[in-house]
């Protein structure tokens, strides 16, 4: 059995994923072998929320050049999970602090 800390690797913090949090939708990088049901159970257990829907997508690895000789290496493919929560529930790690005094405060 895979533990919850192994299934949920890290949250995806991008402009798009932060914008989706207003609609109770959160995005995580998850273990490649995790099923939708395992993802749903681990999000519910770790954050104490009710998950209504889980959508997954595989991101293929990319070619990168590294080192002095600029040789090609491949990054590992990863799996993303887009998790929909019940109405009125949020996950605190995605909230952004409200700036006081406007843009240049």
From TrEMBL:
Gene3D superfamilies: 3.30.70.330. Transmembrane segments: none annotated. It holds the Pfam family Ribosomal_L23. One of its GO terms (cellular component) is ribosome. The keyword Membrane does not apply. Keywords: Ribonucleoprotein, Ribosomal protein, RNA-binding, rRNA-binding. GO terms for molecular function: rRNA binding; structural constituent of ribosome. One of its GO terms (biological process) is translation. InterPro entries: Nucleotide-bd_a/b_plait_sf, Ribosomal_uL23-like, Ribosomal_uL23/eL15/eS24_sf. Belongs to the universal ribosomal protein uL23 family. One of the early assembly proteins it binds 23S rRNA. One of the proteins that surrounds the polypeptide exit tunnel on the outside of the ribosome. Forms the main docking site for trigger factor binding to the ribosome. Part of the 50S ribosomal subunit. Contacts protein L29, and trigger factor when it is bound to the ribosome. This is Large ribosomal subunit protein uL23.
